[in-house]
Each structure stands twice: as structure tokens, then as C-alpha cells.
Amino acid sequence: MAKDLSAPVGVMDSGLGGVSVLLELVRLLPHEHFIYYGDSAYAPYGDRDPETIKTRALFCAKQLYDSGAKALVVACNTATGVAIKDIRETFSDIPVIGIEPAIKPASMQTDSPRVVVMATPVTLRQGKFQELIGRFTDRADIIPVPCRGLVELIEAGILEGPELEKAVSDCLFPVLSPVPDSIVLGCTHYPLIKETIGKAVFDLCGRHVPLLDGGEGTARQTMRLLDQNGLLNPGPEEGRILWRTSARDGTEDRYKAFFARRRKETA
């Protein structure tokens, strides 16, 4: 493995969603350079067949690998569930980090918690997801919720407002009685609308419910693997981000603007 410490970390998603993971990566690894690749021409992955998802995920990973990425972060729950094994086998000379829904921390919060998991239909059908649920069913009541249509709205830039609020409420209304102890955001797009989800939950059940996602855990695992492989960039300069996409409509600028806005809001 080449030890070019200044090489970028590649981050891939079906579109805008992986920006939520990139925010955590930049916060934890401020000296690293990143290349973000969003496959917005083929978004969303959540309703596509597994073979198409695998083909697209491998294509995105190759774009980042060929650009000199020293590690790959698959910042998409659907792509992780469908293609992470193939990506690791194909690009075995660099660390490959996936993401998984934050079911473990949600299951450990209280005794016998009720946990709602919002995710795309494909993620919920994957054996990797079913295996994850199976590890915690003895200590938690886990309720998967297929959220059709949310990713499409987010990719269209609808990040707030009545249309999004109705879509979120329609997804969650059937599973909020009794009130869950936590809600797991099992798609990297969903943390981008966390405020809308939180408001919908409060409006529907009259109290705030913790919203958990896997972005921070993925960033920590990325840091651990970079460190283990001697690939951490010591700095001292602040890292840069290169934005790329399969779309042809200025989507990179939308990624960049949204990242900057969210980073400012959470600073």
C-alpha cells in the first residue's frame, strides 16, 4: 500500500446523503483531504434492484480509487448492504469503510427499548440489515419502516416545508404508538432533514424522541483504520474537498453549498 499521507479519502453515496457523513469526517479529521462522489444521475438507490446498485457502487468506488483515494468510505446504507463485500474484494489494497444503522446504540439506551428504524426499502430487505437486527432482538423491540419517497425529495432539494413534513408524517404515523424510545435514521440522507423529522415526531406524539444515525461511528472507524494503516495526514494545513458527481446539472455546486450551510449551522 502506498503511504502517501496527503492522498484524499474517497467518500461515495447515491447522491446528497453522504454529505451528512462527510460533515462528521471533516469534523473528526480536519487535516484530511476528501473527494466526494455523488451518483445523483442514478439516485435514489433505495428502490433499484441489487445488481444495479452493485454495479453503480463499484463504478463510484473505481472513480475514487482511480483518483488516488487512500481509503474509501461507502457513505450509503443501501450501497453498504448490497455491495460492501464486492468493493472490499475489488479494492483490497486500501481500507474500505461502510456504514450501518445505529441499531446497537439505540438498543443499549434502556432496558427493552422500542426502536423505530427509518430506511429505504432495499436496505430493509438486505441480509446484512436482517442480520444486524437479529443481533439485538433479544434486548429491543425493533420496528423497521420503509420510507418511500423521502430520498427523492431530498435529492430534489426539498429539505424543509409542507411537502416534506407530510411525507415524513405519512412514514412515521403508523409506528409512533406507543411512543418509541428512539428513532434510527437508517439512510444517510435522513440526517439532512433531522429537524423536520424531529418536528413531525413531536407533532404526532407530543414529545421529543432521540434521533440516532451512523455518521459519527463511521467517521470514528475511518480514523481508526487510517491510523492502523499509517495513513493519517498530520497536517498542519486544513484539508480540502473535491466534489464530483455522475449528474450533469451543476450538482457539485449544490453539494458544496449544502455542505457549507450545514457546517456553518453546526459550528
Describe, in plain words, how this protein is organized in 3D.
With 267 residues, the chain is α/β, with parallel strands linked by helices. It contains eleven helices and nine strands. It has helices at residues 19-28, 50-66, 77-90, 103-107, 121-125, 127-134, 150-155, 162-172, 194-205, 215-228, 251-266; strands spanning 9-13, 34-38, 71-74, 96-97, 114-119, 141-146, 182-185, 211-212, 241-245. Helix 3 links the parallel strand 3 and strand 4 (96-97). Helix 1 (19-28) crosses helix 11 (251-266) and helix 8 packs across helix 9. The radius of gyration is 18 Å and the shape is globular.
Question: What attributes characterize this protein structure?
Answer:
single chain; 267 residues; alpha/beta; Rossmann fold; 2 domains; five-stranded parallel β-sheet; four-stranded parallel β-sheet; 11 helices; globular
What class would the helix/strand composition place it in? alpha/beta
Helix content: 40-55%
Task: Flag low-confidence runs.
Answer: none
CATH fold node name of the largest domain: Rossmann fold
CATH class of the largest domain: Alpha Beta
**Overall CATH architecture of the largest domain:** 3-Layer(aba) Sandwich
